[in-house]
């Protein structure tokens, strides 16, 4: 079966929230990933979650994930309880929008992996209340939880049947990992594959989110990424996720359209 194509709202971030939904549908995406900071900003101006859900339904868009849950990974005591309060609210909002997953981002520094696993299991149990299951994300620029192997270690300590990961070619490169690590996964362990490219310079250790470019415009072997996903039997979501300020200054509809074309050309030609 073919992949399903999704637009991460960060790719056209300056556009208003409801406009992003309309653009994603108009140019041919089947889903859109929404960010909680944008959702909360929309609500703060008098909008309602029902408005967002209605726009999604009217345009036939799924919301595979919302982004993101924070401060859950390495906290304890009162700071952990405070973090959980926000995680609950965000998972409740995700449920209202029909999202099955909420991305759970890691701590930036050194982490007690057993604690992270226990806290991740707690998040998953919280998500079971309303059917929104946090997906563990690794970030290539953080100190420890920066590879797929590190994310899987957290999953192993959590030992929860609904544990999943977010995979991302940029973060795999930035964290010094290998695309071949994808063979360690079962399809059911993948909540989402983000999709993006990155230039060969600056050096890997100096790259950050804003260096990402459209698929095929960088040096990553994305055909290999897709081939490995197909090899393990994954046919879920590919989501175009960029934070490129040059693209943010361009027409958002054109960026979304070209991004989908480039993503499909690689995914369907691999």
TrEMBL record:
One Pfam family this chain carries? AP_endonuc_2
SUPFAM superfamilies per UniProt: Xylose isomerase-like
Q: Which domain of life is it from?
A: Bacteria
For whether the record's keyword set contains Secreted, the answer is no
Reply yes or no: does the keyword Electron transport apply. no
Q: Which InterPro entries match?
A: IolE/XylAMocC-like, Xyl_isomerase-like_sf, Xyl_isomerase-like_TIM-brl
Q: Which residues form the Xylose isomerase-like TIM barrel domain?
A: 22-265
Molecular function terms from GO: isomerase activity
| Key words of the record | Isomerase
What protein name is recorded for this chain?
A: Sugar phosphate isomerase/epimerase
Q: Which organism is it from?
A: Schlesneria paludicola
Q: What is the lineage of its organism?
A: Bacteria, Pseudomonadati, Planctomycetota, Planctomycetia, Planctomycetales
